[in-house]
Amino acid sequence: MAVDKSTNQSVEKALALLECFQDGRPRRVGELAEDTGIGQSTVSRLLATLESAGMVERDSSSSLYFLGSELLTLAGIAINRNPVHRAARMIAQQLAARLELGVNVAVRRGGELVYLCNFEGRLSPKSHTLMGERVPLHATSIGKAVLSGMSPTERDAITPRLRAYTAETITNRRDLARALSLAAREGYATEVEEFVLGRASVAAPIRDRNGTVVAAISISGPVTVLELDARRGELGRIAVEAADRISTGLGFHGPAGP
């Protein structure tokens, strides 16, 4: 059956519009047209269609558009069907309650990680949820935990540019290779103010039934609370144990014997 090219292009343009809202900021038609390179009349038409489907909503007083509540339903279904989320949710929630710190689980999508769930303890409060948020691989412990399970060729392919987020971000491939080699030996990765100032974390990789690193779990909090200098080994061990439990839930039972 022939595919309607114009229909495909309309879908691609609608998706481009939705991606413009990833930073959480509401947008006007003109802004969306400028950001996507799509004509304003086309943007207005696509937004009307998306609004009728509940994918976007419009504030009548300001004419600003923002993501619609229908996406919450779709996101909830997608997350609840994700095997990593199903294996990790209870373990992460219990760990956050026990440590009173933040515990996060994320899966790799290309050169980024997408958070599946996050729980905040009393000592690590946040005013927003990380669920669905994307973060870089090289500048976070949870990302470095995933990278530590890859070959140098694989790492370079998905991290073509090591962007600096703070003065502490690793932007040199040799330094990153050293950090990942240490993470592979110890079984966990660490990060101190490499992505967000004032925050630190430790993370361990999660493996699927084939032993492939598909996700990671991290323990995070304010630098002064996490005290990685004194608690690095302790928190690293806890992260590894939690990751191992999740990996077991995914069907991984350790490397095969000789």
Structure description:
- The protein starts with a helix and ends in a 9-residue tail after the last helix.
- A hairpin with a 5-residue loop joins β7 and β8.
- The N terminus is likely disordered.
- The longest helix has 22 residues.
- α1 crosses α3, α2 crosses α3 and α5 packs antiparallel against α10.
- The chain has a 6-stranded antiparallel sheet with strand order 5-4-3-8-7-6, sandwiched between helices.
- The protein is of the alpha+beta class and 258 residues long.
- The relative contact order is 0.10.
- 46% of the residues lie in helices and 19% in strands.
The termini sit apart by 52 Å
Arithmetic mean of pLDDT: 89
Helix-strand pattern: HHHEEHHEEEHHHEEEHH
Q: Unreliable segments (pLDDT under 50, ≥5 consecutive)?
A: 1-5
How many β-strand stretches? 8
The rough form would be described as globular
Q: State the helix count.
A: 10
Structural class: alpha+beta
What topology, given as strand order, has the largest sheet? 5-4-3-8-7-6
- Helix proportion range: 40-55%
Provide the gyration radius in Å. 21 Å
Main sheet characteristics: 6 strands, antiparallel
